[in-house]
Design goal:
0% of the residues lie in helices and 56% in strands. With 118 residues, it is mainly β. The chain is globular. The termini are far apart.
Length: 118
């Protein structure tokens, strides 16, 4: 059974920083892309950043230059360093792990709350 577990959320003032971590375990298949998504109240879940096993990254325009995604393939762990946080970054942040298998399979974490106060 694949498990995806996030940690590191919390309350921070605008302009501050937080680091999220996500560890995936239990897969017999390699993990390909891992990513962070977020969902604010009343809004759809959106991609924040993703990273492939080869290290290629993609970011939402709203977080470019402020957030950095990184990964430790040996630990199947992905990190999201968030800096210069804004109140509009407030959301539940979810981690996603995509297995390298056909057909593709995705697993989600339970989410971690990030609240940025003004």
């Amino acid at each position: 059974q694949v498990q995806v577990v996030e940690s590191g959320g919390g309350l921070v003032q605008a302009g501050g920083s937080l680091r999220l971590s996500c560890a995936a375990s239990g897969s017999i298949f390699p993990i390909d892309a891992m990513g962070w998504y977020r969902q604010a109240p009343g809004k759809q879940r959106e991609l924040v950043a993703s990273i492939t096993s080869g290290g290629s990254t993609d970011y939402a325009d709203s977080v470019k230059g402020r957030f950095t995604i990184s990964r430790d393939n040996a630990k199947n762990t992905v990190y999201l360093q968030m800096s210069s946080l804004k109140p509009e970054d407030t959301a539940v942040y979810y981690c996603n792990a995509q297995l390298r298998v056909v057909p593709s399979k995705n697993y989600w974490g339970q989410g971690t709350q990030v609240t940025v106060s003004s």
